[in-house]
Design goal:
Number of helices: 5
Order of helices and strands: HHHHH
Radius of gyration: 15 Å
Largest sheet: none
Strand content: under 5%
Shape: elongated
Number of strands: 0
């Protein structure tokens, strides 16, 4: 991912957030992040579902926007393997994250 860092993207990313709420970013374009997410999933797709979810959690906890997007790409790639309890848990967690002031 470091190879894909774009200084212009890094410099302009703060304009998409309110002052004081800027996201942590590496400065990689979303088109590149999408490619990285899809290509890297090919390398881990044979791992157990729970291991991939654990890796997604680690990426999400990093706090970096690009790593969170990759976690979402990986989790979405497993959607056919979701069980009903997983779907309910995801819906609950999304509701907890989408509180608007």
């Amino acid at each position: 991912m470091i190879v894909c860092i774009d200084e212009k993207t890094l410099a302009t990313s703060s304009r998409f957030f309110k002052e004081g709420e800027a996201a942590k970013v590496h400065g990689v374009k979303m088109t590149d992040i999408s490619k990285i997410g899809k290509e890297s999933f090919k390398q881990i797709k044979e791992l157990p579902k729970q291991k991939i979810f654990d890796l997604c959690g680690d990426l999400w906890k990093s706090g970096y926007l690009e790593e969170s997007v990759i976690a979402c790409i990986w989790a979405e790639s497993l959607h056919k393997q979701y069980e009903e309890t997983t779907k309910l848990k995801c819906r609950y967690e999304i509701q907890q994250c989408t509180t608007y002031n």
